[in-house]
Amino acid sequence: MLEAVAKLAQEYHLPCQVSLEEFMACAVGGCAGCVVEVQTETGPAMKRVCVDGPVFDSNAVFPAA
Ligand code: FES
Hints:
The chain is of the alpha+beta class. It has one domain. The protein has helices at 2-11, 49-52, 58-61, and strands at 17-19, 35-40, 43-48, 55-57. The chain is elongated, with a radius of gyration of 12 Å. It starts with a helix and ends with a helix. Bound molecules: FE2/S2 (inorganic) cluster (FES). FE2/S2 (inorganic) cluster (FES) is lined by residues 24-27, 29-34, 48, 50.
């Protein structure tokens, strides 16, 4: 559903943020069990949902095709 919302926002050129849910073991940034790939200015990067998110720019998580 988040991806569908992100695609709609891209289609209508609207700003959009998504709040991700992920399985978490430590929830304090120590285990890297909750990482997701996001696009940054320097390329793809792995971010921890528990400490770097959980809210990310939708274009970073679901880049336009
Ligand atoms: S749950 Fe351990 S780093 Fe996020």
